[in-house]
UniProtKB/TrEMBL annotation, chain A:
PROSITE patterns: UBA, UBC_1, UBC_2. Residues 4-152 form the UBC core domain. Keywords: ATP-binding, Nucleotide-binding, Transferase, Ubl conjugation pathway. This is E2 ubiquitin-conjugating enzyme. It comes from Ciona savignyi. Residues 156-197 form the UBA domain.
Automatic annotation (TrEMBL), chain B:
Residues 1-18 have a biased composition (Acidic residues). InterPro entries: Ariadne, ARIH1-like_UBL, E3_UB_ligase_RBR, IBR_dom, TRIAD_supradom, Znf_C3HC4_RING-type, Znf_RING, Znf_RING/FYVE/PHD. GO terms for biological process: protein ubiquitination. It comes from the Eukaryota. Residues 136-347, 140-189 form the RING-type domain. Residues 1-29 are annotated as: Disordered. Belongs to the RBR family. Ariadne subfamily. The keyword Repeat applies. This is RBR-type E3 ubiquitin transferase. It catalyses: [E2 ubiquitin-conjugating enzyme]-S-ubiquitinyl-L-cysteine + [acceptor protein]-L-lysine = [E2 ubiquitin-conjugating enzyme]-L-cysteine + [acceptor protein]-N(6)-ubiquitinyl-L-lysine. It comes from Ciona savignyi (Pacific transparent sea squirt). GO terms for molecular function: ubiquitin protein ligase activity; zinc ion binding. Keywords: Metal-binding, Repeat, Transferase, Ubl conjugation pathway, Zinc, Zinc-finger. Its EC number is 2.3.2.31.
């Protein structure tokens, strides 16, 4: 690994510890080579993700910081710009808008901002984006339920969701698959069962 | 056949008459105005206007760039580095640059903004304040280390980084991303473009510098519509023309190519059609065409089945499928019972439609294969002609031993030249015809093509035949007659096609 990348990462980690205690973000090393890190962001208040803890994988390329880090969600999340299946993220600063002067801290803060303000016209997950645009209440309900199930977000779980999920899993489908099917079909039990798998 | 020959004879004469007419016109023109045309190809190319072009080396390209820079600089007086970025922004169109520059009436700030450079007029004031600001160390935002101010540098936008990070950054952009004229400042959301001077200052590695310079000339050539790289591998020459056209140009390395599309010279086909044709030949769309023309899918497991005879009661061989169906209607076999010939579904609409589609795709395939075979044949022969050159060289030496002078045997080389030209033209005539609907003009074209092909094959045969002392004079006469005939037929064919382009005779198929 090139020395600039390693020194930069070390320096960044130090800065994050001192500066970001109040900002609900966290980054730590995953191995000794400084090329794989784990991050955490807390769902911002006023969003369906409020209070959830979302874990991220951060891969540092050898040419960092001249090329952007590769970031994806480990925690499953229902968001138009994040794949509900793979956790891949669509964010300009992780692609062509990356600049060497940006840091992991700015990336995580931008991701937090992305959770507050989705961009459904530039979607990563077309199903989620369509729901976001056409059926906002179903989107909010789903995103909140996902945050509660996968990211430990606080609050009373939606009774309708819990019940339908239970029905589908009792038929013998895995929880993740059942939830994906119900969510993609805006919680219509019949449609979900038609398209499951 | 006789009548055909007569017809050709007649056409030949008429075209000859036309040529003479043109020549005498030219003479009259010359006599009146005393302009001597610069005609390097001699009188041989009297029929076409000479297409002017020059071949430039990599160094000459750099000179040309400098020449343009100096020329514009004489007018606007902006630093070279800024001007280079401006020119690149306007695709090296100096007229456009000057027009825009003066459009803003002495206030060209907008231009600088659009081209992502800091205006050199604003610069003087801001720069000084920056320089004086502090003498202490500063932190590089990229590597997060502190350095003395002298080790920090930056563009006129004011963002500064350490020299180590700068050179790494530029290296990545140049080597990995192939950027040259559009590398931005590394600061976030700063679009100011890095100029060539700072790159040359910060990059010491020879490989990177070379690549940068190459990328610079490349982008200069690419965005200049009057310049074209020679497409030959490892040839770094550029052809410069005076106006853009579909014309053959010859590089110093010997490659002759079409200036418009950079493919080998492909008269009479249009660039557009050649491109379509090459794509068709390259990708395996024809394989899939063959499959759709000759096979059907098992209606149950979708495996592709080719029927090689036998009855229409088909049992899928796939181990897991074993589906039994009727080849004709693709329905399950059971209702057919033992009497397939009463297959009641045979006339069902969709079965008929499927058959029609298959029929059409079969015809298309046949048609393509027809043209492709002939194209490939000539291409193949053309490749063999390099062998022929060697053979002919040997023959020429033999003949010189047989009491003929060097000049007397040159006709053989000329004959092979003509042969190659004819083969190349013939090859492309099949591409040309592939894209055309039948009409009367196409019939004439095909007659021309047939005659030229026949003559070319005869010439080819003559050249491969043994040459003996006894027959030598006779053979020379025959070969000379034949290649002159071939050459004239080739011109007739090409002129006919060109005339068709002018007069809109050709009716293109939608392929």
């Amino acid at each position: 690994m090139c020395s600039i990348a390693a020194t930069r990462i070390q320096r960044e980690l130090k800065d994050i510890k001192s500066e970001c205690s109040g900002q609900n973000i966290k980054i730590e090393l995953h191995n000794d080579q400084f090329d794989l890190l784990k991050g955490e962001i807390v769902g911002p208040p006023g969003t369906p993700y409020q209070g959830g803890i979302f874990k991220l994988s951060i891969k540092i390329p050898e040419t960092y910081p001249f090329n952007p880090p590769k970031v994806s969600f480990d925690t499953k999340i229902w968001h138009p710009n994040i794949s509900s299946v793979t956790g891949a993220i669509c964010l300009d600063i992780l692609k062509d808008q990356w600049a060497a002067a940006l840091t992991l801290r700015t990336v995580l803060l931008s991701l937090q901002a992305l959770l507050s303000a989705a961009e459904p016209d530039d979607p990563q997950d077309a199903v989620v984006a369509r729901q976001y645009k056409e059926n906002r209440s179903a989107f909010i309900k789903t995103a909140k339920f996902w945050a509660q199930i996968y990211a430990n977000a606080p609050g009373q779980r939606d009774g309708d969701c819990v019940e339908k999920l239970k029905k589908v899993t009792e038929m013998g489908f895995y929880r993740d698959i059942s939830l994906q099917a119900l969510s993609s079909n805006s919680w219509s039990l019949a449609d979900a069962l038609d398209n499951i798998g | 056949m006789d009548s055909d020959d007569d017809y050709f004879e007649a056409e030949d004469e008429s075209s000859l008459v036309e040529d003479e007419g043109r020549v005498s016109d030219d003479e009259g023109f010359l006599g009146d105005t005393m302009i001597v045309p610069d005609d390097p190809l001699g009188s041989g190319s009297k029929e076409e206007d000479v297409y002017p072009f020059v071949c430039l080396s990599a160094e000459q390209i750099v000179e040309l760039m400098l020449e343009i820079l100096n020329e514009v600089n004489d007018i606007v007086n902006i630093p070279h580095t800024t001007l280079r970025i401006l020119l690149a922004h306007f695709n090296w169109d100096k007229e456009l640059l000057l027009e825009k520059y003066y459009e803003y009436d002495g206030n060209p700030e907008q231009i600088f903004k659009d081209a992502h450079v800091i205006s050199p007029f604003k610069l003087k004031s801001t720069c000084k304040t920056k320089g004086q600001s502090s003498r202490t160390d500063a932190e590089c935002e990229i590597c997060c280390s502190s350095y003395s101010r002298s080790f920090m540098t930056g563009l006129n936008c004011g963002h500064i980084f350490c020299k180590g990070c700068w050179s790494q950054y530029l290296r990545t952009k140049i080597m990995d991303e192939g950027m040259s004229q559009t590398i931005p400042c590394p600061a976030y959301k700063c679009e100011i473009i890095v100029d060539d001077e700072i790159v040359m200052c910060l990059i010491s590695e020879k490989k990177v510098r070379m690549k940068y310079q190459h990328l610079m000339s490349n982008s200069f050539v690419e965005c200049n519509s009057l310049l074209k790289w020679c497409p030959a591998p490892d040839c770094h020459h550029v052809i410069k023309v005076e106006y853009r056209d579909r014309q053959p140009v010859k590089c110093q390395c010997g490659r002759v190519f079409c200036f418009e599309c950079s493919e080998s010279w492909h008269d009479p086909v249009l660039c557009l059609h050649l491109k379509k044709w090459l794509k068709k030949c390259d990708d395996d769309s024809e394989t899939s065409n063959w499959i759709s023309a000759n096979t059907k899918e098992c209606p149950k497991c979708q495996v592709t089945i080719e029927k090689d005879g036998g009855c229409n009661h088909v049992i899928c061989r796939s181990q897991t499928c074993k589906h039994e169906f009727c080849w004709v209607c693709l329905g399950p076999w059971d209702p057919h019972g033992a009497s397939w010939y009463n297959c009641n579904r045979y006339n069902a609409d969709d079965a008929k439609k499927a058959r029609d589609v298959q029929q059409r795709s079969r015809e298309m395939l046949q048609r393509y294969l027809f043209y492709c075979n002939r194209y490939m044949n000539h291409l193949q022969s053309l490749k063999f002609e390099s062998k022929l050159y060697a053979l002919v060289k040997r023959k020429m030496e033999e003949m010189q031993q047989l009491n003929m002078s060097w000049i007397e045997v040159q006709f053989l080389k000329k004959a092979v030249d003509v042969l190659c030209e004819c083969r190349q033209t013939l090859m492309y005539t099949y591409v040309f015809a592939f894209f055309l609907n039948r009409n009367n003009q196409l019939l004439i074209f095909e007659d021309n093509q047939a005659d030229m092909e026949k003559a070319t094959e005869t010439l080819s045969e003559y050249l491969e035949r043994d040459i003996t002392t006894a027959s030598i004079r006779e053979i020379k006469q025959k070969v000379q007659d034949k290649y002159r005939y071939c050459d004239s037929r080739r011109n007739v064919l090409l002129n006919h096609v060109h005339e068709g382009y002018d007069k809109d005779w050709w009716d293109y198929l939608d392929l």
